[in-house]
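Input structure tokens:
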């Protein structure tokens, strides 16, 4: 069972879309992320850095076709954060309330 949990880091629109794309596969190449999001290299780099700093994404560079390509992948912590965030969004959209503890 996935515990619904709002995650401020994942919630930013571009980061949410990045996590969504990465959750569907093992890894995605930087250019494919950039094209899908319709953002500049610097915008994507900044968003990936925020996810990487949170421990949600790994970024690796590897040579391919005479060039260095950059690949991004969700970490287990990133998958858990994304899945929990999506579960919380679903809970909110359904109008389900959570009982608040009495203090």
């Amino acid at each position: 069972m996935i515990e619904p949990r709002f995650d401020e880091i994942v919630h930013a629109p571009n980061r949410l879309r990045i996590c969504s794309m990465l959750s569907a596969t093992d890894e995605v190449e930087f250019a494919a992320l950039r094209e899908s999001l319709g953002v500049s290299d610097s915008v994507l780099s900044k968003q990936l850095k925020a996810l990487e700093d949170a421990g949600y994404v790994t970024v690796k560079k590897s040579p391919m076709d005479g060039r260095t390509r950059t690949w991004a992948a969700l970490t287990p912590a990133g998958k858990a954060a994304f899945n929990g965030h999506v579960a919380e969004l679903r809970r909110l959209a359904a109008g389900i309330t959570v009982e608040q503890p009495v203090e």
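The chain has a mean pLDDT of 92. The longest strand covers residues 57-64.
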